[in-house]
């Protein structure tokens, strides 16, 4: 269910803009009951015959289950455990083909707890742009960060390609 509460959309846009170098508008915010429902909607929208999505390994299993329900093929890219669980962009490029519609990323990562750096997220956005796919950034745990790497919202690269999922 899509919720329409203009005053709430404005307040959320202002709140999220605090972490960005630009301002979101109320029109940039879509309210849905729960992040799981947002995942279902996004995967349903992306589903078409032969389409595939890129998911991390290890990752959050709900995406695999819901993708199967939507008849989306899943290709798993590697996370580099010896490099703070960064995305192996070489494996992303090797897996992507003309049927790839999106790459899903998690930062802070579930289940690894990693937080991607600004530089790494920029490379992810540039890779997605080169491949002609969306970046779906699951940032539900954006306020639960441990260690020295600060949280950087994928929305910072909004001029390149991303869609961000969050939760309040």
UniProtKB/TrEMBL annotation:
- State the Gene Ontology terms under molecular function: L-tyrosine-2-oxoglutarate transaminase activity; pyridoxal phosphate binding
Q: Name one GO biological process term.
A: L-tyrosine catabolic process
Q: Name one Pfam family in it.
A: Aminotran_1_2
Q: Which Gene3D superfamilies match?
A: Type I PLP-dependent aspartate aminotransferase-like (Major domain)
Q: Which InterPro entries match?
A: Aminotransferase_I/II_large, PyrdxlP-dep_Trfase, PyrdxlP-dep_Trfase_major
Looking at the record, the residues that make up the Aminotransferase class I/classII large domain are 5-152
The organism's place on the tree of life at top rank: Eukaryota
Could you identify this protein by its name? Aminotransferase class I/classII large domain-containing protein
